[in-house]
Amino acid sequence: MNKKTAHELKTLLNKKEISATEIVKSVYDQIEKYEDAVSAYVTLTKKHALAQAKEVDEGKRTGPLAGIPIAIKDNMCTKGTLTTCSSKILNNYIPPYNATIIDKLDQAGAIMIGKTNLDEFAMGSSTENSGIKTTRNPWNLDCVPGGSSGGSAAAVAADETILAVGSDTGGSIRQPASFCGIVGMKPTYGRISRYGLVAFASSLDQIGPMTKDVRDCALLLNIIAGYEEKDSTSAKIEVPDYTKSLVADDIKGITIGVIAELMGKGVDKLTKEATEKAIKLLESKGAKIKKVSLPHLKYSVATYYLIAPAEASSNLGRYDGVKYGLRSKETKDLITMYKNTRAEGFGPEVKRRILLGTYALSAGYYDAYYLKALKVRTLIKQDFEKAFGECEVLLSPTCPSPAFRVGEKANDPLSMYLSDISTIPVNLAGLPAISVPCEIIHNLPIGLQIIGKAFDEETILKVAFTYEQNTGWHKEKPKIL
Ligand code: GLN
To answer: Which residue's alpha carbon is nearest to atom 5 within ligand 1?
Structure first.
């Protein structure tokens, strides 16, 4: 049962052929079997999950996702359940409230299986920056699952959950989805409330679905999207029924732009070939293919690594040993307590980002770095606007290569940062994008990225669904299973 999608399980549940308890048990059985090898979860909530499953079976817990297991990235607040951000500094933090999406999932009847591992405070591309443990890629346990939502991606790929949610600041949903052979979507900035998502870089962060296929992605997006007054950046724009976009081969006449800058130097040969094959397939279904150039994309990574650390340095100021989590025992005076708490609590990458960000925002450097980065961000946004003047969606590989090996880039932050070269521009422009599995190279999956206009998740779902239904890569499973 744990191998099935949410929509398949929903059908079986409706026909009363299976029970929610059986589904939840099958997921925990899988966790029991594979979690030692994969390490996707930080916390499991088995007792609570089984109690909720019983409620579903007794008809006391209902809703569109009643009885469907979901894994939650551990940077989303869950009332009464540890929320660590995979950081030592929050190793004992139990939120007194739920993130909006947790309440929405609860109202829909979904069942939380546990909280998943991430790069500390979502800073990273491999989960190696986790202060707790490194998650492994179920396709090859010597490889990383990607990051920062690596735990969620690995849990879905290993059938240790049915659905998952992640957060994406520069690629953290799409890149691990690509590395683990699953579907991952970063919706438009503002589409989903960020209330209760622990902030990394507030102008870039967005929550999104991580699922086994495109239909599940639409189902989950239906539940978690929408305006919420507690998040002033969430958009007051009506949420359509995304499952209506799931019409295969309905892409005749759609213009798809292929981003030249993301198909050139630095993209691994086989990844490029797989992307070209995907383009041909979409063309054969009636889409018009157009090569587009976004000349400012080459500045995306540099721009991101000024803006994201600047915002992070401000957001992380709240961890001072007073209000949350860890407090150092060295407390001879207040300043010493602050210093030691942060020295002990934050890992090296988080410290690096705080240093970078504080520097970029400091008097004398603000104009030269931070302000300049904001201006380049506008140029990147304008590049996208221009491309969308002539195309409905844009396309690129999600990542320049398949998953890399654990340790391969751990001591080389720059090469790690470059693994997000195709995903970062989308966050800077606030646009929606999806990654769908599009090939398996040497037993490692890769992803195809489809980018849409702001608040047009429907068209990217339509193109993604067409691609998926004509290929079937999403049905492939890691060999260890
Ligand atoms: N890998 C990027 C970073 O390290 C993006 C992370 C994310 O999207 N949360 O910042």
So the answer is: 170
Torsion of CA 382, 225, 219, 144, to 10 degrees: 60
Question: Please, where are the H alpha helices in 158-200?
Answer: 174-180
Nearest to 263 by CA among 399, 147, 386: 399
Q: How far apart are CA 313 and CA 369, in angstroms?
A: 15
In the block, residue with structure tokens 């026909």: 15
The CATH class of the 6-247+431-475 domain is alpha beta
**Count of C-beta atoms within a 10 Å radius of residue 204:** 23
In the three-class reduction of DSSP (H, G, I as helix; E, B as strand; rest coil), residue 433 is classed as strand
β-strand partners of 209: 165
Residue 148 bears catalytic tag:
yes
Residue 170 Cα to ligand 1 midpoint, Å, equals 5
Residue 385: other Cβ atoms inside 10 A: 13
Protein residues with CB under 6 Å of any ligand 1 atom? 122-125, 148, 168-172, 200, 308, 420
> According to the model, what pLDDT value does residue 344 have?
96
pLDDT by residue (tens digit) across 164-192?
A: 999 999 999 999 999 999 999 999 999 99
> Is 409 designated active site?
no
Q: Are strands 433-441 and 183-186 parallel, antiparallel or unpaired?
A: antiparallel
- Spatial neighbors of 47 by CB under 8 A, at least 6 apart, are none
- Domains of the chain, by residue range, sit at 6-247+431-475, 298-376
